Rod shape-determining protein MreD
Amino acid sequence: MNSIAGINIVRFVLLLLLQVVICNHIDFLGYINPYIYIIFIFLFPIREDRLVLLLVSFLLGMMVDIFSDSGGVHAAAAVSLAYARPILLKSSFGMLYEHQTIKFSTTDIGSLITYISLGTVIHHFILFSLEIFNISNILLVLQKTLFSSIFTILLSVLIIILFSRNRK
């Protein structure tokens, strides 16, 4: 097993544990919940096969669903995020993505925040749309998406900067 696979396995397990042990118990003001497990999907190696990302994202989402008793909404949202990832990478990083030279530890912070923000909003909108599943509650879906996204984006960017920036 190479070191990249090892790092990803550790990242998968740690983010899953953080999500189910800590983040699932945060329910600020009734509709603010951080979903930091999606950091795994954001940081998954770009050169890796896309099918592997889709399968691992499904597995990650399913594990969160099992621990949260949420019936598959996390799996669906995680796979949707993984599927949209190439578009998010291209719109956030442009030519760096075209040449597959993105290194999250050295990228410009603005591009990283754009990438995390777009992905988080997509994930959360799908998650809450499936969770609530009622068009008459669209304002609640949008409210939960907005506030949980802000909290998740702040935590995600903070975690990524703390653990992946080159230490100088």
About this structure: The chain has a mean pLDDT of 89. The chain has seven helices and no strands.
